[in-house]
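Data availability (excerpt). The following record was deposited with the supplementary files.
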Amino acid sequence: MTAQSSRPTTDATTFACEHNHTSCIEEALESARMVCEKEGERFTDLRRQVFELVWAEHKPVKAYDLLSELSSQRSGVAPATVYRTLDFLQAQGLVHKLESLNAYLGCSQPKQDHQGHFLICESCEEVRELESKAFSKSISEIENTQNFQVKNITVELFGLCAKCQDQNVDPTGNL
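Predicted structure:
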């Protein structure tokens, strides 16, 4: 994990490397507890551990990487346990699944009903979740004009974050 700046996040366009990550995780944990409490669900030790591992970095994490890390912390963790826990966290709106990467990411807006829109840096692999009202409005217009009910939307946009652009990083590994 890279060192984090102590500069607080004030802008929705700030990438993970530009904020206090310890505070970020603490806020995410508190939000997760509140969401589970509101829904009458238990935020068990296992759920908390998986949630913390997902939030360890602002990078997508695969279920088997979570399994490996959990296995080093507790005995008897099976793949099904990890997947059930991720399904629970997803159902509560606490994590998103990035379909193209088959990986999971902590939700930055767990208290809001929203669809996932993500900017994924191909170089440093950090991910930014954003909410675009204009994009959501466009989808609503499509639903209306096409008489089609959209059940789920995940938009994953790949490119380079500002930091990697400033470092003239080529996502293919060439400089």
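Summary of structural features: Confidence is low (pLDDT under 50) at residues 1-14.
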